[in-house]
Specification:
Blueprint lengths: L7 E7 L6 H9 L6 E7 L6 H11 L3 E5 L8 H11 L4 E4 L5 E2 L3 H9 L6 E8 L21 H5 L10 E4 H5 L11 H12 L3 E11 L6 H4 L3 H19 L6 H15 L8 H15 L1 H12 L1
Parallel strand pairs: 1-2, 1-4, 2-3, 6-8
Antiparallel strand pairs: 4-7, 5-8, 6-7
Length: about 300
């Protein structure tokens, strides 16, 4: 199976991970499947990350380092978009600069996606440094019910950014949002399942995930920050995908979840944002149900 026809691109955004990324890259070097490239896109690190990465580039030509241009949007998702455009592989795996691949990560994913007419497949991850089980991974009904747009959008199934392998032409047909808000990966995968449902999940743990204090969610400071980010998690996704053939039930789900977060906090939005939301509520739910939701927001 290891030939140029089945070339895999691994895309890693990096920001200030000098103390961790070496372990990540070692886990990639240790893969049982060897026909890969690893594109690391640095997001303007201020530590020694670039020096660490360059050492790996020197000793293994499969590693590539790119720098996010200064005039390009900052953030992990912007780096992922840059990596997607540079990818030469037939398949793409998104990975993070502080997590670890099990040795059969690539081989198992590639074998599965090539076993049928699939555009992407989804594996699983587990924490390796989380003895207190904080924020445990929740895959919900993944593997028990089909991977469909409605099931994913409506939170009946779930996965982590680095769980899938995706055909490159499919991955490249959509983009990660670059608005630098919380849980942007959900936005990307909503677009993915609206693009194709030719996918399956496998009950195989292929990634060891690290939990640490540097994550975006940990660093959210105030209740207002948390609320507005949770709102945009659903609302921005709705705005972006409403013309992608999304079902009525999934459209209503995204707006309903947005509204739940804003109950008693509608003043988090300015006048123009409120007006746009209210119009969309009436268009999506119909006049009477839409007005009822607006009234609840204004209580």
């Amino acid at each position: 199976m290891q030939n140029k026809k089945h070339f895999v691109s691994i895309i890693i955004p990096n920001y200030n991970r000098a103390s961790l990324i070496g372990e990540t890259l070692e886990s990639i070097i240790s893969q049982t499947y060897e026909n890969w490239e690893c594109i690391i896109v640095d997001d303007g690190s201020t530590d020694n990350s670039v020096l660490v990465i360059l050492e790996y580039v020197k000793k293994d030509s499969r590693f590539q380092l790119s720098q996010r241009p200064d005039d390009y949007s900052k953030g992990a998702n912007a780096c992922r978009n840059i990596g997607i455009q540079k990818a030469q592989g037939d398949y793409i795996i998104f990975f993070d600069s502080d997590d670890l691949m099990l040795e059969n990560h690539i081989e198992q994913k590639l074998e599965t996606i090539r076993s049928g007419d699939y555009d992407f497949i989804v594996a699983r991850s587990r924490y390796f440094n989380n003895p207190e089980n904080k924020n445990p991974l929740n895959y919900r009904e993944l593997g028990k019910i089909p991977i469909t747009a409605d099931n994913y959008i409506q939170k009946k199934i779930n996965w982590i950014t680095f769980d899938p392998i995706i055909r490159t032409d499919v991955a490249r047909s959509i983009r990660f949002t670059e608005k630098n808000r919380s849980a942007e990966e959900y936005n990307y995968f909503v677009k993915l399942v609206l693009t194709t449902e030719k996918a399956i999940a496998i009950d195989e743990i292929l990634t060891k995930r690290r939990i640490h204090e540097g994550s975006y969610q940990v660093n959210l400071k105030t209740e207002k920050d948390i609320a507005i980010n949770q709102f945009h998690y659903f609302y921005d996704t709705f705005l972006e995908v409403r013309h992608m053939g999304i079902s009525k039930s999934s459209s209503q789900f995204l707006l309903s979840e947005s509204c739940k977060i804003l109950y008693r906090q509608i003043d988090l939005l300015n006048f123009s944002e409120k007006g746009e939301l209210y119009i969309l509520l009436i268009r999506t739910f119909g006049f009477f149900k839409g007005i009822n939701k607006i009234r609840l927001l204004e209580l």
